[in-house]
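Retro notes, item 3 of 5
We never archived the inputs for the magnesium ion complex last cycle. Fixing that now. Sequence and ligand:
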Amino acid sequence: MQRTKIVDVINSQPTNEAVTVMGWVKTFRSNRFIAINDGSCMDNLQAVVDFEKWDAVLLKKIAPGAAIAVTGSLAASQGQGQAVELIVDQLEIFGESDPSSYPLQPKKHSLEFLRQIAHLRFRTNTFSAVFRIRHYMAFAIHQFFHERGFYYIHTPVITASDAEGAGEMFQVTTLNLNSIPRTEEGNIDFKKDFFGRAANLTVSGQLEAELAAMAFSQVYTFGPTFRAENSNTPRHLAEFWMIEPEVAFADATDNMNLAESMLKYVIQYVMEHCKSELEFLNQREQDEDKQKPAQERNEMGLLDRLRFVLSNDFERLTYTEAIEILKQSNPNKKGKFQYPIEQWGADLQSEHERYLVEKHFKKPVILSNYPKEIKAFYMRQNDDGKTVAAMDILFPGIGEIVGGSQREERLERLQKRMEELHIPQEEMYWYLDTRRFGACPHAGFGLGFERLILFITGMTNIRDVIPFPRFPGNAEF
Ligand code: 4AD
Ligand code: MG
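Structure as it came back at the time:
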């Protein structure tokens, strides 16, 4: 089918040559003006029909949601906000849309309502902006790593290792759950399962990425990850996408530098390539803010927040320094934290992270050198015997957006830590082999893709930045 995209005609000059545009009707006003959108840009094209020339039955079919093709010439627009409009010569209806049952009316719908019709919400301005930005962000991430000589490694979605987050994994099985085979001891006999052993959906591609980094030096993964934690929050999904670079011959500082430049690169890229989407979302947030009490409004607009992150270094401090700040903080002294900070060693909750970034530093923060007790077994042990070379990056409005570390490359230390944490070493022989054959200092991190989308779009619920969110009690669509 021959069609011209709206993005290619919207700012062109008037022409007598016939142009065909295909898309979905947004609105049809006065039996004359059709606003058509084809998803190629934020803007609708205005098509003008002369209702005296057309059959009334046909005109009735031009209803919101209908898929149509219009052919005609481009004339200078009389209306505001567009250079040209299409004067319709030919009109074809591909698919009608019954206005009495089409859920998207030309009015503002709540995000909660739109979540229930996620199969149609792509057609709204907000989700059209969010998901185009999501695309550009994914593209920018690949470009960032490619430009720096990283290789994209596809790590498995199904895995038999559960080293990272035991207890939070989704099991994968083809066993008949109504008659589960048992061993003589009465346990589930996974030997009879598809893989001959218990298998899960991955929580992270890191361990496999480390294997590849021991050959390619610089690799990254970018894939779906799954966590069965029962977290019903606006920051957690059961299925989310994670970007995990892994770099050989790199230490904790290199790791921070890489993460900070990647985050800035992606933000910069979106600011350059998604101007109208960001302007739309910026305006949307401003309008929303007007409905809110003053203390709940954003101190800075969306575009200003993005510019601010680009033009400032992230604040870097250690966990120990952060604990001191938190201990002395007003909310801690006044008992305002749900989890008061009493001593070194406390795990940081999102309320603490947000205090640090939003109230204290008022900018992104990189926290490093956490107590080893609250971090994973593979993180490199510092000389103090208490901390590991971990880093978390905290963003305003979001909290943790990146988690990573320099890895423990010293075999004995790694084994000792695994022993302490009762992680079976026989099963993980392949991971330990990288420490046996050509171990080297290396580091990496994981960026939660949807959390970065939240920051860049200004959306506030993670369920609104992934097309079909998975969370406890919901796997619709
Ligand atoms: O901090 P996490 O658990 O780190 C890892 O999985 C490491 N293996 C990463 C690495 O070093 N290669 O997760 C990394 C990031 C978090 O900072 C957060 O942004 C995001 O993944 N994340 C989630 N995003 C949405 N929903 C969830 N349930 C998430 N859990 C983590
Ligand atoms: Mg983490």
